[in-house]
Amino acid sequence: MQLSELEEKMHAFVSSKGWYEPGSAKPQSPRNLAISLVIEAAEVLEHFQWRDDVVDSVEFADELADVGLYLIQLASITGVNLEEAIIEKLAKNQNRHWPDP
User: What is the pLDDT of residues 24-36, one digit of tens each?
Assistant: First the structure.
């Protein structure tokens, strides 16, 4: 499945819940989506708290999916072409050097 197809499915889901409607209890603003993205990323970290390996791969995959969905939605509603941004960032990093720790 292409990223654009995932974006369409995500928008269809959010629309079906009424979250894009004015006065929604869950307004899908860039600020709110950025906050939700960070919260979900923290939930990914919980799977590694006090351990080095994932114990429940199904729950871990769910959290990664939440991060991905919020990222796709945030990019979409702010007009960022995420595919292009990723490709450009990879190109920038190609010649970048990071100091060894």
Answer: 999 999 999 999 9
